[in-house]
Write a structure and sequence with these properties.
164 residues, mainly alpha, Ferritin, 85% helix, binds fe (ii) ion
């Protein structure tokens, strides 16, 4: 299907993000299983629940635009998750692996922050004020997650990794 106007492009991007979150529900599950530090494991589990709720909010927005979730697979997110798995599989030391997991998770969060930032701006331009509010709320969740990961890395995980 060709994208002919801004609204179509916006809806296509909503579908893309819906797929990103669906992949991440599974990806964060794996990361939580891999994580060794209790606080990191808990952080991944909490963000997984948040991600599930983001997925549901995106479904609500798609429904309001009479659009289906779509079958498109976001290959960028697929690649980011695949790399994080590959990387984690190569690092036997749990402290080092946790530092690597945080770095992978932050790449993922930054990808989401970029995507939600653009989409929220598009929603504003198109006059979809409900969507704009929801997209901003999700954007804030992603930013908070990124900050929590930075804090955890600096405070606990990186110092431990330095002693591995
Ligand atoms: Fe997300």
């Amino acid at each position: 299907m060709n994208v002919e106007n801004f609204r179509q492009m916006y809806v296509a991007e909503l579908q893309e993000l819906r797929n990103v979150e669906a992949q991440l529900v599974k990806g964060l599950q794996l990361m939580a299983e891999r994580a060794d530090h209790a606080e990191l494991k808990k952080g991944f589990q909490e963000h997984q629940q948040e991600t599930q709720s983001q997925l549901e909010r995106l479904d609500g927005m798609l429904q309001a635009h009479n659009a289906q979730p779509g079958e498109h697979v976001d290959q960028s997110m697929q690649g980011l998750i695949r790399e994080s798995e590959k990387w984690a599989g190569m690092v036997p030391d749990p402290d080092l692996r946790d530092a690597g997991l945080i770095a992978s998770a932050q790449r993922i969060e930054h990808y989401e922050i970029a995507a939600y930032g653009s989409l929220a701006t598009w929603a504003k331009q198109l006059g979809f004020s409900n969507d704009q509010a929801t997209l901003h709320a999700i954007l804030d969740e992603e930013k908070r997650t990124d900050e929590k990961l930075t804090d955890l890395a600096k405070r606990i995980v990186n110092p431990d990794a330095a002693h591995a």
